[in-house]
Give the backbone structure.
Amino acid sequence: MTSTIESPVLRTNFEKSVAEYWNTNRIDPVNLRLGEVDDLYHHHYGVGEPDLSVLEGPADTRDERIIAELHRLESAQADLLLDHLGPIQPHHKLLDGGSGRGGTSIMANRRFGCEVDGVSISEYQVGFANEQAAKRKVADKVRFHFRNMLESKLETGSRQAIWTNETTMYVDLQDLYREFARLLTFGGRYVCITGCANDVTGLRSKSVSRINEHYTCDIHPRSAYFRALADNGLVPINVIDLTAATIPYWELRAKSSVATGIEEPFLTAYKEGSFHYLMIVADRI
Protein backbone atom coordinates (compact mmCIF):
# COMPACT_ATOMS: atom_id res chain seq x y z
CA MET A 1 0.00 0.00 0.00
CA THR A 2 1.36 3.39 -0.99
CA SER A 3 0.52 6.76 0.50
CA THR A 4 0.50 10.13 -1.23
CA ILE A 5 2.44 12.90 0.45
CA GLU A 6 0.43 16.08 0.05
CA SER A 7 2.54 19.05 -1.06
CA PRO A 8 2.46 22.10 1.21
CA VAL A 9 0.55 25.23 0.21
CA LEU A 10 3.71 27.34 0.50
CA ARG A 11 6.29 25.50 -1.56
CA THR A 12 9.10 28.01 -2.03
CA ASN A 13 10.81 30.74 -0.05
CA PHE A 14 9.32 33.29 -2.43
CA GLU A 15 5.79 32.02 -1.79
CA LYS A 16 6.47 32.13 1.95
CA SER A 17 7.64 35.74 1.71
CA VAL A 18 4.55 36.72 -0.32
CA ALA A 19 2.24 35.04 2.18
CA GLU A 20 4.02 36.72 5.07
CA TYR A 21 3.62 40.11 3.40
CA TRP A 22 -0.14 39.73 2.97
CA ASN A 23 -0.64 38.05 6.34
CA THR A 24 1.13 40.81 8.24
CA ASN A 25 -0.08 43.70 6.08
CA ARG A 26 -3.52 43.55 7.66
CA ILE A 27 -4.04 47.21 8.39
CA ASP A 28 -4.12 48.09 4.71
CA PRO A 29 -4.91 51.79 4.49
CA VAL A 30 -6.25 51.45 0.96
CA ASN A 31 -8.41 48.36 0.45
CA LEU A 32 -9.81 48.22 3.97
CA ARG A 33 -10.71 51.89 4.00
CA LEU A 34 -12.33 51.68 0.57
CA GLY A 35 -14.20 48.52 1.49
CA GLU A 36 -15.81 50.28 4.43
CA VAL A 37 -17.89 52.29 1.95
CA ASP A 38 -20.29 49.40 1.29
CA ASP A 39 -18.66 46.44 3.07
CA LEU A 40 -17.35 44.98 -0.21
CA TYR A 41 -13.60 44.46 0.01
CA HIS A 42 -11.40 44.28 -3.07
CA HIS A 43 -7.72 43.72 -3.53
CA HIS A 44 -7.02 45.56 -6.76
CA TYR A 45 -7.09 49.00 -8.40
CA GLY A 46 -9.68 50.94 -10.36
CA VAL A 47 -10.62 51.91 -13.91
CA GLY A 48 -12.85 54.52 -15.47
CA GLU A 49 -13.39 58.24 -15.53
CA PRO A 50 -13.61 59.62 -11.99
CA ASP A 51 -16.12 62.21 -10.86
CA LEU A 52 -13.73 65.04 -10.06
CA SER A 53 -16.48 67.01 -8.36
CA VAL A 54 -15.46 65.04 -5.24
CA LEU A 55 -12.52 67.43 -4.98
CA GLU A 56 -14.92 70.33 -4.53
CA GLY A 57 -17.24 71.13 -1.66
CA PRO A 58 -16.63 71.19 2.11
CA ALA A 59 -13.02 70.49 3.05
CA ASP A 60 -13.94 68.43 6.11
CA THR A 61 -15.69 65.78 3.99
CA ARG A 62 -13.39 65.96 0.95
CA ASP A 63 -11.42 62.84 1.78
CA GLU A 64 -14.59 60.87 2.45
CA ARG A 65 -15.86 61.78 -1.01
CA ILE A 66 -12.55 60.75 -2.62
CA ILE A 67 -12.59 57.40 -0.79
CA ALA A 68 -16.12 56.67 -2.03
CA GLU A 69 -15.13 57.53 -5.60
CA LEU A 70 -12.00 55.35 -5.47
CA HIS A 71 -14.15 52.46 -4.27
CA ARG A 72 -16.60 53.03 -7.12
CA LEU A 73 -13.70 52.80 -9.58
CA GLU A 74 -12.31 49.57 -8.08
CA SER A 75 -15.78 48.00 -8.18
CA ALA A 76 -16.06 49.15 -11.81
CA GLN A 77 -12.83 47.26 -12.52
CA ALA A 78 -14.31 44.08 -11.05
CA ASP A 79 -17.52 44.56 -13.02
CA LEU A 80 -15.50 44.96 -16.22
CA LEU A 81 -13.75 41.68 -15.54
CA LEU A 82 -17.05 39.89 -14.88
CA ASP A 83 -18.47 41.33 -18.11
CA HIS A 84 -15.95 39.23 -20.03
CA LEU A 85 -16.50 35.84 -18.36
CA GLY A 86 -19.01 34.82 -21.00
CA PRO A 87 -22.56 33.41 -20.60
CA ILE A 88 -22.30 32.13 -17.03
CA GLN A 89 -25.27 30.13 -15.74
CA PRO A 90 -26.29 29.40 -12.12
CA HIS A 91 -25.14 25.77 -12.39
CA HIS A 92 -21.61 26.74 -13.42
CA LYS A 93 -18.60 26.80 -11.12
CA LEU A 94 -16.01 29.58 -11.17
CA LEU A 95 -12.52 30.01 -9.71
CA ASP A 96 -10.97 33.23 -8.39
CA GLY A 97 -7.21 32.68 -8.51
CA GLY A 98 -5.58 34.69 -5.75
CA SER A 99 -8.89 35.82 -4.29
CA GLY A 100 -7.70 38.44 -1.80
CA ARG A 101 -10.45 39.67 0.50
CA GLY A 102 -13.11 38.16 -1.74
CA GLY A 103 -14.89 41.14 -3.27
CA THR A 104 -14.87 39.97 -6.90
CA SER A 105 -16.04 36.46 -5.94
CA ILE A 106 -18.97 37.88 -4.00
CA MET A 107 -19.87 40.12 -6.94
CA ALA A 108 -19.72 37.12 -9.32
CA ASN A 109 -22.13 35.12 -7.17
CA ARG A 110 -24.44 38.11 -6.88
CA ARG A 111 -24.49 38.56 -10.65
CA PHE A 112 -24.63 34.94 -11.85
CA GLY A 113 -26.00 33.01 -8.87
CA CYS A 114 -23.33 30.35 -9.34
CA GLU A 115 -20.76 28.70 -7.10
CA VAL A 116 -17.38 30.41 -6.72
CA ASP A 117 -14.23 29.07 -5.12
CA GLY A 118 -11.40 31.41 -4.25
CA VAL A 119 -7.85 30.34 -3.41
CA SER A 120 -5.12 32.35 -1.70
CA ILE A 121 -1.80 31.60 -0.01
CA SER A 122 -2.63 34.18 2.66
CA GLU A 123 -4.45 32.54 5.58
CA TYR A 124 -5.51 35.97 6.78
CA GLN A 125 -7.13 36.81 3.43
CA VAL A 126 -8.93 33.46 3.33
CA GLY A 127 -10.34 33.96 6.81
CA PHE A 128 -11.41 37.52 6.06
CA ALA A 129 -13.10 36.53 2.81
CA ASN A 130 -14.96 33.60 4.37
CA GLU A 131 -16.24 35.90 7.09
CA GLN A 132 -17.57 38.24 4.39
CA ALA A 133 -19.32 35.37 2.59
CA ALA A 134 -20.91 34.23 5.85
CA LYS A 135 -21.97 37.77 6.70
CA ARG A 136 -23.70 38.04 3.32
CA LYS A 137 -25.27 34.57 3.77
CA VAL A 138 -23.66 33.16 0.63
CA ALA A 139 -21.11 30.84 2.28
CA ASP A 140 -22.91 27.84 0.79
CA LYS A 141 -21.93 29.03 -2.70
CA VAL A 142 -18.88 31.28 -2.18
CA ARG A 143 -15.96 29.53 -0.52
CA PHE A 144 -12.37 30.56 0.04
CA HIS A 145 -9.51 28.10 0.55
CA PHE A 146 -5.97 28.32 1.87
CA ARG A 147 -4.44 26.75 -1.23
CA ASN A 148 -1.90 27.47 -3.90
CA MET A 149 -3.48 28.40 -7.23
CA LEU A 150 -0.69 26.47 -8.95
CA GLU A 151 -2.09 23.34 -7.31
CA SER A 152 -5.71 24.10 -6.48
CA LYS A 153 -6.82 20.53 -5.66
CA LEU A 154 -10.09 21.18 -7.51
CA GLU A 155 -11.59 18.67 -9.91
CA THR A 156 -10.31 18.50 -13.49
CA GLY A 157 -12.66 20.17 -15.99
CA SER A 158 -14.86 21.53 -13.22
CA ARG A 159 -14.65 25.26 -14.02
CA GLN A 160 -16.58 27.17 -16.63
CA ALA A 161 -14.52 30.29 -15.99
CA ILE A 162 -11.45 31.37 -14.05
CA TRP A 163 -10.03 34.80 -13.42
CA THR A 164 -6.94 36.35 -11.90
CA ASN A 165 -7.18 39.97 -10.83
CA GLU A 166 -3.72 41.43 -10.25
CA THR A 167 -2.26 38.19 -8.89
CA THR A 168 -0.22 36.67 -11.72
CA MET A 169 2.92 38.62 -10.81
CA TYR A 170 3.35 36.25 -7.87
CA VAL A 171 3.57 32.99 -9.84
CA ASP A 172 5.25 31.18 -12.71
CA LEU A 173 2.94 31.66 -15.69
CA GLN A 174 3.63 28.28 -17.28
CA ASP A 175 2.75 26.49 -14.04
CA LEU A 176 -0.33 28.66 -13.57
CA TYR A 177 -1.80 28.19 -17.03
CA ARG A 178 -1.07 24.47 -16.99
CA GLU A 179 -3.25 24.22 -13.86
CA PHE A 180 -5.96 26.48 -15.30
CA ALA A 181 -6.06 24.43 -18.52
CA ARG A 182 -6.62 21.35 -16.37
CA LEU A 183 -9.46 22.97 -14.44
CA LEU A 184 -11.33 24.60 -17.33
CA THR A 185 -13.94 22.75 -19.32
CA PHE A 186 -13.51 22.69 -23.10
CA GLY A 187 -14.44 26.18 -24.34
CA GLY A 188 -14.20 27.59 -20.82
CA ARG A 189 -13.09 31.17 -20.30
CA TYR A 190 -10.09 32.71 -18.54
CA VAL A 191 -9.86 36.44 -17.83
CA CYS A 192 -6.72 38.11 -16.54
CA ILE A 193 -6.27 41.70 -15.42
CA THR A 194 -2.66 42.48 -14.63
CA GLY A 195 0.14 44.98 -14.71
CA CYS A 196 2.91 43.84 -17.04
CA ALA A 197 6.23 45.24 -18.19
CA ASN A 198 7.00 46.60 -21.62
CA ASP A 199 9.33 44.00 -23.16
CA VAL A 200 11.75 46.65 -24.43
CA THR A 201 11.89 49.15 -21.56
CA GLY A 202 9.95 47.73 -18.62
CA LEU A 203 12.54 45.51 -17.00
CA ARG A 204 15.01 48.43 -16.94
CA SER A 205 12.51 50.89 -15.50
CA LYS A 206 13.23 52.21 -12.00
CA SER A 207 9.51 52.70 -11.44
CA VAL A 208 8.71 49.08 -12.31
CA SER A 209 11.48 47.98 -9.95
CA ARG A 210 9.97 50.08 -7.16
CA ILE A 211 6.57 48.46 -7.70
CA ASN A 212 8.17 45.01 -7.55
CA GLU A 213 9.94 45.88 -4.33
CA HIS A 214 6.89 47.48 -2.72
CA TYR A 215 4.60 44.49 -3.27
CA THR A 216 7.21 41.70 -3.01
CA CYS A 217 6.29 40.56 -6.51
CA ASP A 218 7.93 39.69 -9.83
CA ILE A 219 6.27 41.58 -12.69
CA HIS A 220 6.27 39.60 -15.95
CA PRO A 221 6.94 41.10 -19.39
CA ARG A 222 3.89 41.38 -21.60
CA SER A 223 5.08 38.70 -24.05
CA ALA A 224 5.39 36.10 -21.28
CA TYR A 225 1.62 36.01 -20.88
CA PHE A 226 0.90 35.21 -24.51
CA ARG A 227 3.66 32.62 -24.68
CA ALA A 228 2.41 30.78 -21.58
CA LEU A 229 -1.23 30.97 -22.69
CA ALA A 230 -0.40 29.50 -26.12
CA ASP A 231 1.73 26.75 -24.60
CA ASN A 232 -1.21 25.60 -22.49
CA GLY A 233 -4.11 25.69 -24.93
CA LEU A 234 -5.54 29.05 -23.88
CA VAL A 235 -6.27 31.21 -26.90
CA PRO A 236 -6.71 34.99 -26.46
CA ILE A 237 -9.94 36.25 -28.03
CA ASN A 238 -9.73 39.80 -26.69
CA VAL A 239 -6.89 41.95 -25.39
CA ILE A 240 -7.69 45.35 -23.92
CA ASP A 241 -5.08 47.87 -22.83
CA LEU A 242 -6.54 49.48 -19.70
CA THR A 243 -3.54 51.71 -19.01
CA ALA A 244 -5.27 54.97 -19.94
CA ALA A 245 -8.37 53.89 -18.03
CA THR A 246 -6.49 53.31 -14.77
CA ILE A 247 -4.30 56.43 -14.71
CA PRO A 248 -7.16 58.65 -13.38
CA TYR A 249 -7.63 56.25 -10.45
CA TRP A 250 -3.99 56.67 -9.46
CA GLU A 251 -4.08 60.43 -9.91
CA LEU A 252 -7.11 60.67 -7.61
CA ARG A 253 -5.66 58.25 -5.07
CA ALA A 254 -2.54 60.40 -4.83
CA LYS A 255 -4.78 63.19 -3.49
CA SER A 256 -6.32 61.03 -0.77
CA SER A 257 -5.49 60.05 2.81
CA VAL A 258 -4.85 56.46 1.69
CA ALA A 259 -1.94 57.40 -0.56
CA THR A 260 1.05 55.21 0.28
CA GLY A 261 3.76 56.75 -1.90
CA ILE A 262 3.59 54.02 -4.53
CA GLU A 263 1.25 56.19 -6.63
CA GLU A 264 4.16 58.09 -8.19
CA PRO A 265 5.97 54.98 -9.52
CA PHE A 266 2.72 53.65 -10.98
CA LEU A 267 1.92 56.93 -12.70
CA THR A 268 5.48 57.35 -13.98
CA ALA A 269 5.64 53.79 -15.30
CA TYR A 270 2.26 54.03 -17.02
CA LYS A 271 2.95 57.40 -18.57
CA GLU A 272 6.47 56.55 -19.77
CA GLY A 273 5.14 53.33 -21.34
CA SER A 274 7.34 50.92 -19.38
CA PHE A 275 4.32 49.38 -17.66
CA HIS A 276 0.91 48.38 -19.03
CA TYR A 277 -2.40 47.56 -17.36
CA LEU A 278 -3.84 44.78 -19.46
CA MET A 279 -6.96 42.63 -19.65
CA ILE A 280 -6.56 39.35 -21.53
CA VAL A 281 -9.60 37.21 -22.34
CA ALA A 282 -8.81 33.65 -23.46
CA ASP A 283 -10.74 30.47 -24.23
CA ARG A 284 -9.70 26.90 -23.44
CA ILE A 285 -9.29 24.76 -26.57
Q: What stands out?
A: The two ends are 37 Å apart (CA to CA). Residues 1-5 have pLDDT under 50 and may be disordered.
